[in-house]
Amino acid sequence: MGLFRPRDDDQRVEDEIMEELLAEEEGIPPIESRLRHNILRMPKEIEEASGIVVYGRRIRSLLFSTDIAIIKNCDADAVFCVYPFTAQRAVHAAVIHAASMPVFCGVGGGTTQGSRAVYLAMDAENQGAMGVVFNAPIPNKDLRMTARVLDIPIVVTVTSEKDDIGRRISHGATILNVAAGARTADVVSNIRARYPKVPIMASGGKTPESIKATVAAGANAIVYTPPSSGELFRGLMDSYREE
Question: Cystine design at 5: which of 9, 64, 81, 100 (Cβ 3.0–4.6 Å)?
Answer without folding.
Answer: 9
